[in-house]
Amino acid sequence: MLTDNFNRVHDYLRISLTDKCNLRCTYCNPNDLEKGFFANKPRMTADEIDRIVSVFAGAGIKKIRLTGGEPLIRKDAKEIIQRLSKYPVELAITTNGVFIDEFIETFKEAGLRTVNVSLDSLQKEKYFSITQRDVFERVMKNIHLLLANDFHVKVNVVMIRGVNDNEILDFLNWTKELPVHVRFIEFMPFIGNKWNSEKVVTHQQILDIIASKYNFIKLLNEKNDTQKKYFVPDHKGSFAVISTMSDPFCSGCNRMRLTADGKMYNCLFAKTETDLLTSLRQEKNIKPLIEECVKGKFLMLGGNNEEENWGNQTCESHERSMISIGG
Q: What is the pTM of this model?
């Protein structure tokens, strides 16, 4: 088991397959990096991802989530998914949904049944203004395709005041007839994404808006949940809030992150990273590096909570934007 100094067991690995994306959401990819953050840096090959995962699997991980950028734009994404399906872990993916129709058979063959789709608006015009791409109808069609094939579908909605906070009830209406699980995510600070506290729509503010129309019931959270879960009686779907800014969930964190260039992060907000890929290419044992990285994890928010105005401080100290870390 991989355990930190606060006795938290880490058994969930998030792997960024690429820092590239076909969308241009400014809160994630503020510099419009078409070639990617790692354009002149080595990226992990499919074989190297497999070899690194074998070490994590031997250390007791139970879940792998593939992220990006947009993971499905990587040319060997199908091969990677197939390779990772051999491990005794739950395999999941986070995607913008554009290419799901091209990969759904691969998902089925790999036993990948949980798909998180990023969708920040239910309005076609607003979706375009956020993403700068005219693919709204394709994404919606692919969400319905997943549901028709009995996938567990979570919809990630980054809430930004003045952008999409007036759609909270629309998303709740959506869950009435469709078994989608909407997750409202508080806007988080990363370099270049113009974050400030006034743009954050908090967990409580989201609940207050929902309560203006709906009665809802809180669901029990599992030990390592990052989301606070709720449902409205008679709705086929549910909703949740990921309250990173207003009510962090660090006490039960079991997550580790691996970037597309083979750097390990023990926290999304960590200021340091551990280079696994270089050591792997030198045929060194990377397990001690993984263990050391986990042991070095702060109690909360990568240690940024010890600073005044930690959100803005994190923006300045982070060398990478969200797209180059992996969500």
A: 0.90
Angle at 75 between CA 70 and CA 77, to 5 degrees: 65
Residue ranges per domain, the chain? 12-325
Q: Please state whether the peptide bond connecting residue 58 to the residue before it is cis, i.e. omega within 30 degrees of 0.
A: no
Answer for the pair 185, 25: CB distance below 8 angstroms, yes or no: no
Note the maximum CA span of the chain: 59
Taking each helix axis from N to C end, the angle separating 100-110 and 77-84, rounded to the nearest 10 degrees, works out to 20
CATH of domain 12-325: 3.20.20.70
Strand, coil or helix: what is 108? Answer: helix
Q: Report residue 133 as tokens.
A: 């791409």
pLDDT in tens, the chain (327 residues): 999 999 999 999 999 999 899 998 877 765 555 555 555 678 999 999 999 999 999 999 999 999 999 999 999 999 999 999 999 999 999 999 999 999 999 999 999 999 999 999 999 999 999 999 999 999 999 999 999 999 999 999 999 999 999 999 999 999 999 999 999 999 877 665 666 778 899 999 999 999 999 999 999 887 777 789 999 999 999 999 998 788 776 888 899 999 999 999 999 888 889 999 999 999 999 999 999 999 999 887 767 665 545 455 444 444 555 556 665
How far apart are the C-alpha atoms of 36 and 17, rounded to whole Å?
Answer: 12
Angle, CA 158 vertex, CA 153 and CA 160 arms, to 5°: 155
